[in-house]
Automatic annotation (TrEMBL):
Domain of life: Bacteria
Domain SGNH hydrolase-type esterase per the UniProt entry, residue ranges: 5-147
InterPro entries: Ester_Hydrolysis_Enzymes, SGNH_hydro, SGNH_hydro_sf
Pfam families reported in the protein's UniProt record: Lipase_GDSL_2
Record-level Gene Ontology MF annotations: phosphatidylcholine lysophospholipase activity
PANTHER family: THIOESTERASE 1/PROTEASE 1/LYSOPHOSPHOLIPASE L1, THIOESTERASE 1_PROTEASE 1_LYSOPHOSPHOLIPASE L1
Protein name: Arylesterase
Length: 165
């Protein structure tokens, strides 16, 4: 999917012009990649908010959840240290990874949100699974058809934090 088809681009076209969205996502990136890139991004862009939408590829690759947790916590702390508001996008793993792993994966996000008291974004991933053509063959990544749905869910979550969005 092209970057101009994603929910970030759609959101940038659907919010107040006083807000600018900088998309630093890299397809296939992991939380380790996010940790290594974030310090430079924070200093070069100087954002007010950072949405951390990572972890899905860690799960797809079967990387240890403890490493994923540590990496996400490091990114959140990097933002807080720079007086930037972090927002954690709660990721889900496809159900074919098994109930135990899926539950442990989701618990990482819930635990971090509680422990570090960070804002979060979530949406009903299951709704994408029930609608044909919304999820790619990997069972994890939404298709271009799903992007407007995600944009609306993200915007709704962000409005709780940024009222004049």
């Amino acid at each position: 999917m092209r970057i101009d088809q994603g929910w970030v681009k759609l959101l940038s076209e659907d919010i107040s012009p006083k807000y600018e969205i900088f998309n630093a996502s890299i397809s296939g990136d992991t939380t380790q990649g996010g940790v290594s890139r974030l310090p430079k991004l924070l200093s070069s862009v100087s954002p007010d908010y950072v949405i951390i939408e990572l972890g899905g590829n860690d799960g797809l690759r079967g990387q240890p959840l403890s490493s994923m947790r540590e990496n996400i916590e490091r990114m959140i702390k990097l933002c807080i240290d720079e007086e930037i508001t972090p927002i954690l996008f709660k990721m889900r793993i496809p159900p074919n990874y098994g109930k135990r792993y899926s539950s442990a994966f989701e618990k990482v996000y819930s635990d971090i949100i509680s422990k570090l008291n960070v804002h979060s974004i979530s949406f009903e991933f299951e709704l994408l699974l029930t609608e044909p053509g919304m999820i790619q063959s990997d069972g994890m990544h939404p298709t271009s058809k799903a992007q407007d749905f995600i944009k609306n869910a993200v915007k709704k979550s962000l409005k709780d934090l940024i009222h004049d969005l």
